[in-house]
Amino acid sequence: GPSPPPIREDDQAEHLPDIFILCIQELIELSGYNVIMGSPDKDREEGIESAVDFILRNLGLRGASGQPLYRRVQSVAMVGLYSVMFAKDALREVLSGFDVGSVKVGFKGSTGNKGAVCIRFVVGATPVCVVNVHLSPGQEKVDERCREFRSILQQAFQSVRSHYSILEHDAIIVAGDFNFRVNMDKDDIRRNMTTEQGIQKCIFHDQLTRARKADEYFRYFREPPLRFGPTYKYIACSTEFDWKRAPAWCDRILFTGKQIRSLTYCRHDLSTSDHRPISALFEVVVRLRPPQYRPQNGVPYHHPPNHSYRYEIPTTAGLRVEGESPRLTVHP
User: Per-residue pLDDT tens for 46-57?
Assistant: First the structure.
């Protein structure tokens, strides 16, 4: 049939994020060979980028000039971890300072099957960092996950080429498979999963919720209210839990910063994996650089006001991409 009419940016600007960052934790199978070789899959990365770009271009998302509303601006990968960033074309004049980083924490820091990839950038004069994490699994490995998170925050961007601190950014978002579980035995979790009151009891015993109160680094971060069911562990292509492992909220999105606030936080029922993907929408108030000093009649220009930008951060933990043309669902 005929192509849909373009959605003008000025018609739906309040509903469309300015920046869209996709975080994937298992772009490739974490087999022994892939972990030892440590090489990301370029074909699958390009497939993801092409799929997202195709969706954004073919849903009629165009700006006032008639050009595509979004463009790919940055990506980074390490073994199965992969992040790609798209931004509205209208932001190109205020985006700068791009850099990427990665931290290995698998096998005591020697392999990248667990760890993080990071994208940092500056909007106007406001530095932003988005971290995509995959921490160690296991009911009893709370302290290990806390140590891994500390290593990621301390070691990212610490190289000859880059020297930033994640915690120095004005807005920080950390998304991914944190792998924290529920401090209850499986039978108790099974009984409590049948009622809303029981689910809230499980959330009360969630390990990450407790770590955010006790751990010196997790305590720095906030999380939007957790109002969705477990993200793990499901039978693939089913809505049923796989009781080989107890259900848990493994996949989470944390944030910190004085000028950032959460707008939405939800789980999506995409059932191709044993995980469920989640997404969050944030609003960040940024400082714009003042224009070049050009006095007219002895009066300089004033600094422009602060502006707000929206960031949508979906994380598809456990996504396993089959074939050369992966399909993605974009939720507005």
Answer: 888 888 877 777
